[in-house]
Amino acid sequence: MHKRKILYGYLIQNGEVTAEPKEAITVKRIFVDYLEGLSYQSIAEMLNEDKIPYSSEAPEWNKHKVKRLLENPRYTGEKEYPAIIGLKTFEAVQQLIQSKAINYTPKKAKPNMKAIKAFCEENELNYELIESEWLGFHKENAK
């Protein structure tokens, strides 16, 4: 295995950037898996389960590595890199990423009731009153 000094899926051979055949297959798999609805995390977990290393220095895949790979236009043949992925596939993935980002709604944080109780005790406030007000407010805004 070679050191990762170049994008995953490529190697430098005789002074030129070329596709690394095994890694190129993995790149294509990642794009297809994402188009089929798998999350960054699910793809990373599958690659790790299949013992496909990212690099010798950092063999484990994670969702950030998968995301960066999917968002990198060099896989379409940009900047002197040979194409591994077709432009239409790349654009389809970018549209899917954008649509997920637009429709993303973060989970609501749960209150740290221990911290609230400690604050109330330190400031001589009625914890039960604050707790019931917060829970009532939360229920109204969860609708």
How far is the first residue's CA from the last residue's CA?
A: 53 Å
- Encode the helix/strand succession as letters: EEHHHHHH
Structural class label: mainly alpha
Characterize the overall form: elongated
User: Beta-strand level of the residues, as a percent range?
Assistant: 5-15%
DSSP summary: helix tally: 6
Please tally the β strands and state the result: 2
User: What is the average per-residue confidence, as pLDDT, rounded to a whole number?
Assistant: 84
Major sheet details: 2 strands, antiparallel
Trace the largest sheet across and list its strands.
1-2
User: Low-confidence segments, ≥5 residues, pLDDT <50?
Assistant: 137-143
Gyration radius from CA atoms, angstroms:
23 Å
Q: What is the percent of helical residues?
A: 40-55%
Structure description:
- With 143 residues, the chain is mainly alpha-helical.
- Helices cover 52% and strands 6% of the residues.
- It has six helices and two strands, in the order E-E-H-H-H-H-H-H.
- It is elongated.
Question: Which properties best describe this structure?
Answer:
mainly alpha; two-stranded antiparallel sheet; disordered C terminus
Write a brief structural summary:
By secondary structure, the protein is mainly α. 52% of the residues lie in helices and 6% in strands.
Secondary structure elements and their pairing?
Elements: E1 10-13, E2 16-19, H1 21-35, H2 40-49, H3 63-70, H4 87-102, H5 113-122, H6 127-141
Antiparallel strand pairs: 1-2
Helix pairs in contact: 1-4, 2-3
